[in-house]
């Protein structure tokens, strides 16, 4: 198939450091190319891909420190519009700015929603564009919103991106991602303290969370069991996660997916996660980790983590969360939407459970 992948311009594809959406766009794009499809990637300059790259901004917008990203986003949509006849399917990862363009579009188009959808101001927008085909990344993500979800496709990683680490040689608990209240870094610190275990924190601090970090997190970093590493790159994740006894994921928000969970699983590292958002769809309780409902349960899980088979954790990843599985799921969706379009039924929704079954704890 001739496929256009349209990525946000804030980060390169793949991102240099933090950037979940752009990382998934990269994994999907490269796997589609590997499977023999003709792919064009619309992304920022500095992106690295085996596909044809169309750069609508010379550099990732986050690094450019632009005052207003809107002109670049509009320019990207125009670059896509100019080449509509070249593609069998357009796959957007850019939230909803492109929705008006899709109204009279002859091409097959689908949009993966990567963020949370429980904000009340989204309801009238998705009501207006109620026929726009959408993909959710978990069943939980779509619950707050009445919209035309045509599939749920979980994220996937390249099978060989991380290797199985059969022993947690570092002996520590890991926290990886972003410092913010909803991610629960202070809870992770307390879990490790009560469990009598070392905690290593590899996380970025966005400008929006500087005050939270200064007031709530930094005062806790002087404890002897805590080591704050800061933001790490892709080339460091394998060792960081693989040497950990477990990944702590004490979230306090409706997490749409949680990419770091499957990154840990790919290393054979089990996950201790709060029962929020997509967690019960990702973690198989007692096999790939523990799903907990309280601080006390998390501490108990940390004490029991050595009882889990790290090879079994890796097998859970391979069975459901590889880039190959993700790409084949999307191709089936592209083909199904193309068939619906030719029969005049484009936009008809189908339950995710029919084609993309989800694991529930």
The first-level CATH class of the largest domain is given as Alpha Beta
Given helix and strand content, the structural type is alpha/beta
User: How many angstroms does the end-to-end distance come to?
Assistant: 36 Å
CATH homologous superfamily caption of the largest domain: Glycogen Phosphorylase B
Please compute the radius of gyration using only Cα atoms: 20 Å
Total domains: 2
Shape label: globular
Helix content: 25-40%
Indicate the CATH architecture of the largest domain.
3-Layer(aba) Sandwich
Number of strands: 13
GO molecular function: glycosyltransferase activity
Protein name: Glycosyl transferase
InterPro entries: Glyco_trans_1, Glyco_trans_4-like_N
Pfam families: Glyco_transf_4, Glycos_transf_1
What does this structure look like?
The structure is a single chain. The protein is of the alpha/beta class. The chain has 2 domains: 2-157 and 323-355, Glycogen Phosphorylase B (Rossmann fold, 3-Layer(aba) Sandwich), CATH 3.40.50.2000; 172-319, 3-Layer(aba) Sandwich (Rossmann fold), CATH 3.40.50.2000. Helix content is 35%, strand content 17%. It contains 14 helices and 13 strands. The strands form 2 sheets. It has a 7-stranded parallel sheet with strand order 3-2-1-4-5-6-7, with helices on both faces. Strands 10-9-8-11-12-13 form a 6-stranded parallel sheet, with helices on both faces. It is globular. The chain starts with a strand and ends in a 6-residue tail after the last helix.
């Amino acid at each position: 198939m001739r496929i256009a992948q349209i990525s946000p311009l804030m980060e390169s594809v793949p991102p240099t450091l933090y950037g979940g959406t752009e990382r998934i766009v990269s994994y999907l794009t490269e796997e589609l190319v590997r499977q023999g499809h003709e792919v064009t990637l619309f992304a920022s300059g500095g992106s690295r891909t085996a596909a044809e790259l169309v750069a609508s901004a010379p550099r990732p917008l986050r690094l450019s420190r632009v005052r207003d990203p809107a002109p670049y986003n509009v320019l990207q949509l125009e670059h896509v519009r100019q080449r509509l006849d070249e593609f069998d399917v357009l796959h957007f990862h850019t939230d909803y700015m492109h929705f008006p363009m899709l109204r009279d579009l002859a091409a097959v188009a689908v949009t993966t929603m990567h963020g949370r959808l429980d904000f009340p101001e989204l309801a009238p927008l998705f009501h207006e564009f109620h026929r726009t085909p959408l993909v959710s990344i978990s069943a939980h993500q779509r619950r707050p919103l009445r919209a035309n979800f045509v599939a749920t496709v979980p994220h996937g990683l390249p099978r060989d991106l991380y290797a199985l680490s059969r022993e947690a040689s570092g002996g520590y608990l890991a926290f990886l991602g972003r410092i913010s209240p909803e991610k629960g870094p202070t809870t992770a610190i307390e879990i490790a303290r009560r469990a009598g275990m070392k905690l290593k924190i590899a996380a970025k601090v966005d400008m929006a969370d500087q005050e939270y970090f200064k007031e709530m997190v930094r005062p806790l970093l002087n404890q002897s069991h805590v080591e704050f590493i800061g933001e790490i790159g892709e080339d460091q994740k394998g060792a960081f996660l693989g040497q950990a006894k477990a990944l702590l994921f004490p979230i306090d928000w409706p997490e749409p997916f949680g990419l770091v969970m499957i990154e840990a699983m790919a290393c054979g590292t089990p996950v201790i996660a709060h029962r929020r958002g997509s967690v019960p769809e990702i973690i198989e309780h007692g096999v790939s980790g523990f799903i907990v409902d309280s601080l006390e349960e998390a501490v108990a899980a940390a004490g029991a983590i050595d009882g889990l088979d790290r090879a079994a954790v890796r097998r859970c990843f391979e069975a459901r969360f590889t880039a190959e599985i993700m790409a084949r799921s999307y191709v089936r969706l592209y083909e199904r939407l193309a068939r619906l379009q030719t029969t005049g039924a484009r936009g008809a929704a189908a339950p995710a459970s029919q084609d993309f079954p989800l694991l529930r704890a």
